[in-house]
Amino acid sequence: MVRSGHAHIVPSKDFGEGAKLYVFPGRTYPPKWVQLIEKSFRLPVNLLSQSPSALVAFKEGDSIFAVTFSYAHVYLDDSKTEADFGLKIAINAISDEKLRSVERSNIGAAIRDFAQAAGQRDLRSFGFDDALDLIRKVSGRASQSDFAEMVTGSRALRFTKKIELADIPQAATNAVKFFKSTAYKKTAFRIIDFLSPVLDPEIEENLNEELVTSIIQDRGEFEISIPAILPEAVGTFRFEHAGFHDFHADLSLSLYREGLDEELESLTVDALKHHTVAAYSLNDGRPFDYWTVHEALIGSLLFRGERYALNEGSWYRISKTLRNAADKKFQELKTDFDKKLRTLKKIAEPKEKGKKVKISYQSEESYNAEISRETDYLLMDKKLIQIDEVPGPGIELCDLLDIAGCRFIHIKKSSR
User: Fold this and answer.
1) Least trusted range by pLDDT, from 258-272, 322-336, 347-361
2) By C-alpha distance, which of 193, 66, 195, 89 is closest to 140?
3) Residues 112, 89: Cα–Cα separation, whole Å
4) Angle at 138 (CA atoms; ends 134, 139), nearest 5 degrees
5) Mean per-residue pLDDT, 353-362
6) Is the per-residue pLDDT at 112 higher than 80?
7) pLDDT band, very low/low/confident/very high, at 336 (cuts 50, 70, 90)
8) Which of 72, 348, 350, 402 is 20 to 30 A from 105 in CA distance terms?
9) Could you tell me where the beta strands, DSSP code E, fall in 107-226?
10) pLDDT of 18-63, one tens digit each?
11) CA max distance for the chain
12) CA torsion sign, 362 to 365 to 368 to 370?
């Protein structure tokens, strides 16, 4: 962008070592909503938009830092940054009893949520009761006011403190101390160690190869989940740099696999890191934000006897203590397989010319109905029970009710 004249570099000797300001003036273009309106209305003037941004890069100690303004963060290569830089600082700088908000994702259910408290709360108040809950972002009051007043951390660090711009390099040095600290192990934040990041490049490479195999074979171990809480202004999504350009109202791994078509069999790790998922605003013709497909994948797999989970492009080893405890509990609770509950029927869809025969499975609804007819189980699927004085449509008690065996049977077509 610098070579093409779409960005400019301004060096400075008064701001950290080797400090450079990268300025991105932005291009003038009509917003997307203008094109819709002018089909029915004669606009009096040319309505154009321009979004300049900037980024300051500097070195302090052994680290290189970047301070971004507006949307300039999209020009940073995330693979060259510390994935949990802001998060590690925040959990060491914030008292676990003075949290204001927490954003988390569950690597088992592919769910991401955000919770904000009216006042200061402890971590347990945010409902962390699942060991597969991964803290992605926290915000709260800093325990040391000389560092900051309020701190928010995820990949990036954002803090509130009245300082001059020239004081940022010193603040960055102080932040690194919190980043390297292990003080969180003595607080409720110690739960983050249930999932330890994979730092061995060889294991990471092997896991990525297993990931590709899993996607090609459609083993159902992974799904695509946007790694961010998106604003309502995002309207459509698209896979880019992959050779197909359809827009989608939502995303799934099956859409990605279908788009690859014959190229699926030759899929590589490099392709997953090159292909992107772009989120488009309702009003603009450019992406609001984007991530590589590798960053958007979520799920887990078994490798050499260990369970590893992928979240936002990073691999995590699930603690053996956690895994063993879960396996032990499962063994205690499991019963013999109910032979009345046969497997779902396979359905072969009509073959299209030049394409493989698509194999799918019968719907959960039809399966439940058939099992109910074949057995003495009562069909309860989609039959809602209204609870007195509780608003709403009611709850689905179960899919099948085994009256003789006193069992609620819940049927799930697939699960990670």
Assistant:
1) 347-361
2) 89
3) 21
4) 170
5) 72
6) no
7) confident
8) 72
9) 111-121, 133-142, 150-153, 157-160, 195-197, 222-224
10) 899 999 998 888 887 888 888 899 888 888 888 899 999 999 888 9
11) 81
12) negative
What separation in angstroms does the CA of 205 have from each of 162, 164, 270, 305, 324? 44, 43, 11, 17, 26
Tokens standing for 201? Answer: 């490049």
Q: Which two tokens stand for residue 205?
A: 């490479």
Virtual CA dihedral for 180, 183, 185, 191, nearest 10 degrees?
-70
Q: Can you tell me which residue has the tokens 């400019």?
A: 8
Comparing CA positions, the residue from 191, 218, 265, 232 lying closest to residue 359 is 218
φ, ψ at 18 (rounded to 5°): 60, 30
The neighbouring-strand residues paired with 103 are 114, 137
Query: Residue 30's pLDDT is what?
Result: 80
The one-letter code for the residue type at 114 is: F
Checking if the pLDDT of 394 tops 50, the result is yes
- Please tell me what DSSP assigns to residue 73: G
Q: Which candidate, 2, 103, 120, places its Cα nearest to that of 55?
A: 2
Reading the block at residue 159, the tokens are: 């803090």
Specify the 3-state DSSP secondary structure of 360: strand
| Displacement of CA 75 from its chain's centroid (Å) | 20
Beta strand 276-281 with 297-303: parallel, antiparallel or unpaired?
A: unpaired
Predicted structure pTM score: 0.56
* Structure tokens that stand for 292 in this block: 């590589």
DSSP conformation letters of 273-315: HHSEEEEEESS-SSEEEEEEHHHHEEEEEEETTEEEEEETTEE
Answer for the pair 9, 21: CB distance below 8 angstroms, yes or no: yes
CA distance 23 to 56: 9
Residue 316 dihedral angles phi and psi, to the nearest 5°:
-130, 140
233: nearest Cα among 283, 198, 302, 289: 283
CB 133 within 8 A of CB 151: no
CA angle 283, 287, 293 (to 5 degrees): 140
In this structure, are residues 132 and 122 in contact, taking their beta carbons and an 8 Å threshold?
no
pLDDT at 329 over 50: yes
**Which residue is associated with the tokens 């488009």?**
280
pLDDT tens column, 160-214: 999 888 889 999 999 999 999 998 888 878 777 777 678 678 899 999 999 999 9
DSSP 49: B
